[in-house]
Design brief:
Structural class: alpha+beta
Order of helices and strands: HEHHEHEEEEEHHHHEHEHEEE
Strand content: 15-25%
Low-confidence stretches: 1-17, 319-341
CATH class: Alpha Beta
Radius of gyration: 21 Å
Helix content: 10-25%
Length: about 350
């Protein structure tokens, strides 16, 4: 009997050291799918086709959107969003949410999620400020210096993308999560409404109004020790641009679709901790997409490409038995989503 017990314990410990994969999706759902016919149903359809473990949603318009979406996703999907009239950001998952870990900032929400394998991740979903979009300034011929372009990233009279990321980076829960990322990996995903400083380089200035720009939102993410999963796998930006903006917005509507809309990579999945990306790709379904203004009957319901990264958990350098680990997972409570009255 003693031998059997030891073998069972060894098997349990080894199981927690084996590699496990997790598929993460960031998906701007374009005002809850309202711009295409049956948009919310199509959002659910494409999430199910991708079959991710965790999804970060942006542009969740109303409190009734998430319950409807979860109903169409079915079991075992659960989700959470902010409790604002305009929730904007939501997290949905097939796994168990650790409810006491819920955190929010002005432009993000976070939840620890325990996978069926027993692994836990700290997941942050962000949607940064959309105003004063940087590439518009960079492609404006009246702009003569870099400070003019960057003025929209950290404006004086409102919170821009730089302030959004500073708030996230300085939040006590984020600081704690980063400090413990060697035990519980951190994944930060979402729509930054900003290009990456890794993309706007000397090699690509011809595509960017002849500007090289150190975009502060992605620089702050980098300073947090986070790694851009897509660019890690595709480091040559001249070969793989990875533009997530836009599937259908190719020309500016205000000029009767005669002026090109700048295309860029503005949706990201960052990580820190003992996971490694093994694949990362854009997704827009399999059917042809009609650009604006002929988009109403598109099958894919968003003006952003979704970004999907699949990670593999890496065993720690010395596999620590669970009873000796400094991290203990509390009791898991399901998170049924209840709309506000």
């Amino acid at each position: 009997m003693r031998v059997v017990i030891c073998l069972l314990a060894l098997t349990f410990r080894m199981g927690h050291c084996e590699a496990t994969k997790i598929r993460v999706m960031t998906f701007n759902i374009w005002n809850s799918g309202s711009h295409v016919e049956n948009g919310l149903r199509k959002i659910a359809k494409h999430i199910l086709l991708v079959n991710p473990d965790i999804v970060g949603l942006q542009e969740v318009q109303r409190q009734d959107v998430l319950p409807k979406l979860l109903n169409w996703l079915g079991e075992p999907w659960t989700g959470v969003s902010s409790n604002d009239d305009y929730p904007d950001v939501a997290i949905v998952t097939k796994h168990d949410m650790i409810t006491q870990s819920y955190t929010r900032t002005n432009r993000s929400i976070s939840m620890k999620i325990q996978l069926h394998s027993g692994h836990v991740v700290s997941f942050w979903n962000v949607h940064l400020d959309y105003k004063a979009y940087g590439p518009y300034a960079a492609n404006n011929k009246l702009v003569t210096n870099l400070d003019q372009i960057l003025a929209g990233e950290k404006p004086l009279k409102r919170e821009g993308r730089a302030q959004n990321m500073e708030e996230i980076s300085q939040h006590p829960q984020m600081i704690q999560s980063l400090n413990k990322s060697d035990v519980v990996p951190v994944i930060l995903a979402g729509d930054f409404n900003s290009p990456s400083h890794m993309d706007w380089t000397e090699e690509t200035i011809r595509n960017h109004g002849n500007w090289k720009v150190e975009w502060p939102a992605t620089k702050i993410a980098e300073s947090m020790g986070l790694t851009d999963s897509f660019r890690e796998l595709y480091p040559n930006v001249t070969e793989v641009a990875g533009c997530t903006w836009s599937t259908v917005n190719k020309y500016l509507q205000d000029w009767e679709f005669n002026i090109p809309e700048p295309q860029d990579r503005i949706d990201f999945i960052y990580y820190r901790g003992h996971v490694k990306p093994v694949s990362s790709y854009l997704y827009s379904g399999s059917e042809p997409l009609n650009p604006m203004p002929h988009h109403r009957y598109n099958d894919y319901p968003s003006d952003h490409f979704a970004l999907i990264t699949e990670f593999e958990f890496q065993p720690p350098s010395a596999c620590t038995p669970c009873e000796q680990s400094s991290y203990k997972v509390g009791p898991l409570v399901p998170v049924p989503y209840t709309p506000r009255p």
